[in-house]
Write a structure and sequence with these properties.
The protein starts with a helix and ends in a 9-residue tail after the last strand. It contains 14 helices and 23 strands. With 494 residues, it is an alpha/beta fold. 40% of the residues are buried. Pathway: Nucleotide-sugar biosynthesis; UDP-N-acetyl-alpha-D-glucosamine biosynthesis; UDP-N-acetyl-alpha-D-glucosamine from N-acetyl-alpha-D-glucosamine 1-phosphate: step 1/1. Its EC number is 2.7.7.23. Keywords: Nucleotidyltransferase, Transferase.
Length: 494
């Protein structure tokens, strides 16, 4: 429906007051359809909020890095534990509590899956990517099957008579939503019930000049970009995900990024740990490989929980160690978080205080004076992003659990053949983990035809084992590769 003249003039006046009246430069020369499209985009956009975010981001980036480096403290003992050091009874206690909550359908999963596989040489959503496991399973399928298996394990562990449901909320971006939903439909939701897989979309923000002016992508549209994985919080509210969680009586959520092939989705140990701490926000971490690994760490800054980037820590401080020999600032962030639904609900109350980060980019845009499309050769503007950990300073009760890197963290960031964090390392890390599962169960894996000890064709489906459980039948067995254990029945064939 076309806007009235009065509606257009009213919107123009609002944008003039905001200093963004240039966005109407080409309006009179557009077709009626283009006018309506531009009007709707401008009318939907909270331009005053965009200006506020820009001013706050520019003001924050103007602070010297020396200021940021000051007032850092290590995590207090009462908010930090490690599965590497905790006794087995304590871990089982956390796990039992996690299973109890999962079996009561009080735990949901939030997947941050808005990215495309551009760096991997793919235009598809990153979760569709095949890391060349023997089974050919995508990241989405691995994670879906872990949820399926965990639902069964939780049901058996607690002797629950009702169906255990772990609701899966999948955050896409505008460019990936359609392809993601189609991928799930084509694969019958990987065995999950369709009504328990809920898609929602993260928000966008306009791309800006360094003076804060909004770029135009065409004469009838603004240049926009996803607002970062921290846009999850506003999207949960605006896309009615929080409403859905409350209607399902969900109290807790586990959130993670799609590119970690080893992620333990809705990990009962982590969930139970955070609940035992009465935490409203929690984070999994791994130990830094060395003092100067390029990774952010969770620590206190000015007395508040924060992810501190490696560039913000002086080399001498980065090398400091505790009495036990561990790095003082060694809790490496892996974007793997726990939340109470009450906390997610509370984010709105401090949302205006969150500081967006500036990413300098080369932004294609329409020249307002000439109407020509400009493709810059160097950065000419900024995209504004919120990071998922930017809410940490506002938590009232934080919990941080250290886990073993080789068991839980192997990110897929780079394309085939690169130095690290690539499809080859993802495949290697999953296969090595599955070999350890067999060995822990009392079996052995030996290479068969065409394989070698460092290059095995072997895989255990998540439908068989979530994290090494259920493999008792392999005790005393020698498994010769190539082999895929695809169903529990396959254990009898070994």
């Amino acid at each position: 429906m076309s806007p009235t003249h009065a509606e257009v003039e009213s919107l123009k006046a609002r944008y003039t007051v905001a200093g963004q009246e240039h966005l109407f430069t080409f309006y009179e020369n557009l077709t009626p359809e283009e006018q309506t499209a531009l009007f709707n985009q401008l009318n939907k956009l909270d331009i005053e909020r965009v200006n506020q975010i820009f001013k706050k981001a520019v003001s924050s980036s103007g602070n010297s890095s020396d200021t940021k480096k000051q007032n850092l403290e290590t995590l207090p003992d009462d908010v930090f534990d490690s599965v590497l050091d905790a006794n087995e009874d304590k871990i089982k206690e956390w796990e039992k509590l996690g299973f109890d909550m999962i079996s009561q359908n009080k735990v949901a999963v939030i997947l941050m899956a808005g990215g495309q596989g551009t760096r991997l040489g793919s235009s598809a959503p990153k979760g569709c990517y095949d890391i060349h496991l023997p089974s050919g399973k995508s990241l989405f399928q691995l994670q879906a099957e872990r949820i399926l298996r965990l639902q069964k394990v939780a049901q058996d562990f607690t002797n629950c008579k009702n169906d255990v449901i772990i609701s899966w909320y999948i955050m896409t971006s505008g460019p990936t939503r359609s392809a993601t939903e189609s991928f799930f439909k084509q694969n019958n939701y990987f065995g999950l019930k369709e009504e328990n897989v809920i898609f929602f979309e993260q928000g966008t923000l306009p791309a800006l000049t360094y003076e804060g002016k909004v770029f135009m992508d065409t004469k009838s549209s603004l240049a926009v970009a996803p607002d970062g994985n921290g846009g999850m919080y506003a999207a949960l509210r605006k896309e009615k995900v929080l409403e859905s969680m409350k209607s399902r009586n969900i109290c807790y959520a586990h959130a993670y990024c799609v590119d970690n092939c080893l992620v333990r989705v809705a990990d009962p140990i982590f969930v139970g740990y955070c609940i035992s701490k009465n935490a409203d926000c929690g984070a999994k971490v791994v130990r830094k490989i060395d003092p100067h690994e390029s990774v952010g760490v969770i620590a206190l800054r000015d007395g508040k929980f924060n992810v501190v980037e490696y560039s913000e820590i002086e080399p001498a401080v980065a090398e400091q160690r505790k009495l036990n020999g561990q790095l003082t600032f060694g809790a490496a962030n892996i974007a793997n978080h726990f939340y109470s639904v009450d906390f997610l609900d509370r984010v709105e109350s401090f949302e205006s205080e969150l500081e967006y980060h500036i990413a300098n980019k080369k932004i294609k845009h329409i020249d307002i004076n000439t109407g020509e499309l400009i493709a810059p050769s160097k950065p000419n503007g900024m995209k504004l992003e919120l990071f998922v950990f930017d809410v940490f300073p506002f938590t009232e009760r934080m919990a941080v659990l250290e886990v073993e890197r080789k068991e839980e963290f192997s990110p897929l960031k780079n394309g085939p053949g690169t130095a690290s964090d690539n499809p080859e390392t993802s495949r290697r890390d999953i296969i090595n983990q599955h070999v350890r599962y067999v060995e822990k169960a009392g079996g052995t894996v030996t290479p068969g035809d065409g394989d070698s000890p460092g290059n095995l064709t072997f895989e255990i489906s998540p439908l068989v084992s979530y994290s090494g459980e259920g493999l008792e039948k392999l005790k005393g067995k020698t498994i010769k590769t190539p082999l895929i254990l695809d169903t529990p029945d396959d254990l009898d064939k070994c």
